Amino acid sequence: MRNANDPLLKSWVKVPEDSDFPIQNLPFGIFKTNELNPRAGIPVGDYILDLEVLLEHSFFNSLKTDVKNTFNQPFLNPLLAKGRLALSEVRNRISELLDINNSELQNRPDLIEKVLISKNRIQELKPIDSKNYTDFYSSEQHARNVGSMFRDPDNALLPNWKSLPVAYHGRTSSIVGTNVPIKRPKGQFKSKDGSIGFGLSQKLDFEFEMAFITCSNTELGEPIDTNLAENHIAGLLMFNDWSARDIQAWEYQPLGPFLGKNFASSISPWLVTLDALEPFRIEGPKQKTEPLDYLKFQKPSHFDVQLEVILRSGSSETLITKGNYKNLYWNICQQLAHHTVNGCNIQVGDIYASGTISGKEPDSYGSMLELSWNGEKPVVLNDGSERTFLEDGDEIIFKAYAEQEGIRIGFGELRNRAISN
Amino acid sequence: MRNANDPLLKSWVKVPEDSDFPIQNLPFGIFKTNELNPRAGIPVGDYILDLEVLLEHSFFNSLKTDVKNTFNQPFLNPLLAKGRLALSEVRNRISELLDINNSELQNRPDLIEKVLISKNRIQELKPIDSKNYTDFYSSEQHARNVGSMFRDPDNALLPNWKSLPVAYHGRTSSIVGTNVPIKRPKGQFKSKDGSIGFGLSQKLDFEFEMAFITCSNTELGEPIDTNLAENHIAGLLMFNDWSARDIQAWEYQPLGPFLGKNFASSISPWLVTLDALEPFRIEGPKQKTEPLDYLKFQKPSHFDVQLEVILRSGSSETLITKGNYKNLYWNICQQLAHHTVNGCNIQVGDIYASGTISGKEPDSYGSMLELSWNGEKPVVLNDGSERTFLEDGDEIIFKAYAEQEGIRIGFGELRNRAISN
Question: Of A123, B63, B153, B399, which one is least surrounded by beta carbons within 10 A?
Fold first, then answer.
């Protein structure tokens, strides 16, 4: 069978060398143009493929899955609802059509004009509409950093941390896409003198996370086995869990973070499929504390994906952290198995974020809280200015990509600017 | 103007004396029958009014609101989306049509047969489909009870509790309606010897809460003022926040409850409007700790609603707690203002539960955890058996009603049986 991940595949669509979107990637997203309503697309090189136009011209007739009315939609949910295998089928078909050895579309200049839209003409939209969003806390270094700062450096990890993937529920109403400004929230905080203040957060922060998206509805009461978990997972997005540390610190006991988080979260535009990430599957860290049976797994389900956070201030950009998605203790299959072991059901389009991803090195920490050690060690930017937390006008840019043999499976960019009004 | 709450109003539909659904109530819900698909209805006495049939026969032509395609739906969301005033308009119109002095429907025996369906022929369904569910923690006695049991009786309330309405996000996928069995969850717990066990929860519990439901979509970044909050609230439901105390105790630090809660929550079938509860509006407790400005309010927004929990075991029923919705420190307007003060947006159909409602008297506590003081004081049932937590087969029945001048504005029943498979 043809392998859509084959590094030797070439497309007749020109793909710049440093592009996130070679023929081996083919992630799914939602875009619009001045003329076109929101719809599903796949980026390749500097173009976006309009899937609805391909459908209208019968290019999907050979598929087993009926994809009618899944592309001309404002969110990917109807497509995701077709399931993991259907997504593979669509991706494989597009790979075929874009292959330099395939003439079906290549020889139709009249159509190409309609099907391939320059990335400069499109607006990337929020790709999914979610009813459920869970945030894990699965990076050991992040949990240690936070535990050290706010509790006790000698007992930074709580006793349950290596026994189960700690997580909590977040809010879906305030999840936005790329290029949407993030309004600095107001709220209560405890001042240094012990009094309770109110006003704009002075500790606005990002958290670099990756999130997996589910593509099935399960029945309440039916747990998912670790070894079958990936059948329910469509792919990954970048996730920014915007945080207001001063609001969070005062409110979070005993029931967890609330207003310090739910003013906004943002997700990246292109859903990179697990299929495309297959060549980047790697072993995670040894779990020396033996997991309970329901958390044991056969196939490694960590992925080697490099992460970058750039802070743009005025016209100056500074790479403030470089991490890797593999820096998690719990993998996505363990996360999903744990989430459902009590019978909790999952739904199409659910977001499961990893928690802030921090590596061992201080320059790989995934939040300003950790990079500046709660304000003690300011981060110096390329324009000479310093940051402990984010200032109005600062733009946070996330990038993520897996790379080998000259093939870069990228996630595009997630950009959001902090504003006060 | 005609007042739909007037205690002197009588209907031509016979309403038994102890009915939850006199002409002064008229709550909204979703029902189906063997012949009819799910649709919106209003209970009156022992009948359910089919709103779609009334629409088809032009009984809503006089309304300002266009209610087409809002009744023939599996959830109330499209109707709620019309807003608070539209709901009032529909309720007022139904009150008019059912009035003993009105002949429009009363004189149409052919139609009455179609419009009024005996409650024995219908199945009550989950009335709303929610994207967001927040659980507050607003009963002072409940917070004190939990704080005493698990932390320190001398400092049972945490320092933030009287400064803000503590809350956290829950999961919507596992919210079910009445008569749906609740499967006892499996999970991790810490055994007495300190080892980590896994299996069926041995501490299955209910929590009696009331929940308000929102009927508008607000913009991200736009807080809601306490004094305008009720414009966004359609009405109230009973809410059972099913809990597994052993799972919860082991997992909840530091990010709050997760699998100990998200295996199931249940909501009652009939949304009682704030309009219908207007005569039962009362002052809440004095807030001696002065609230910050954004939590100050003009009109009292507590409601005098009596709550009962019945445990049915075999054929024996025991009233195990009697509480009142007024036993909350924070009112619904303060809750909504707090939730949005950081700019968090709200959506149509959101659920905002009160947290367990416990009064000062031990027989008014709203959970087995408190009634049995974490298992130390078993609750004796009418059949002579004892309970610390729930056993398989136990059915938990919630009732709620506001009553004065012989008029009972009731919420019907929320019934769910605990099962193991």
Answer: B153
Per the CB < 8 Å rule, is B220 touching A183? yes
Residue A405's SS3 state is coil
Q: What is the residue type of B183?
A: K
Residues with Cβ within 8 Å of A10's Cβ and at least 6 positions away in sequence, in order, are A23, A99, A100
β-pairing, B306-313 vs B196-200, is unpaired
Among A175, A223, A353, A332, smallest CA distance to B174 is for A223
- Find residues 102-141 of chain B whose CB sits inside 8 Å of chain A: 130-132, 134-135, 137
Would you say A151 and A133 are in contact if contact means Cβ atoms under 8 Å apart?
Answer: no
Burial (CB count within 10 angstroms: exposed 0-12, middle 13-18, buried 19+), residue B106: middle
* Cβ within 8 Å, pair B263-A343: yes
Is A169 part of the annotated catalytic residue set?
A: no
**pLDDT tens digits along A284-298:** 999 999 999 999 999
Q: By the CB < 8 Å criterion, does A338 face chain B?
A: yes
Q: Which residue from B163, B253, B263 is facing A158, i.e. has the nearest CB?
A: B253
pLDDT digits (tens, 9 = 90+) for B216-261: 999 999 999 999 999 999 999 999 999 999 999 999 999 999 999 9
Q: Is A338 helix (H, G, I), strand (E, B) or coil?
A: helix
> Which two structure tokens, joined as six digits, stand for B132?
């967001």
Write the DSSP string, A341-403: TT-----TT-EEE------SSGGG-SBHHHHTTTTTSPEEPTTS-EESSPPTT-EEEEEEEEE
Q: Which residues contact B181 (CB under 8 A, 6 or more apart)?
A: B416, B417, B418, B419
How many angstroms separate the Cα of A210 from the Cα of each of A22, A354, B94, B143? 21, 6, 51, 35
Kindly provide the ipTM of the predicted complex, given to two decimals.
0.97
**pTM of the entire predicted model:** 0.97
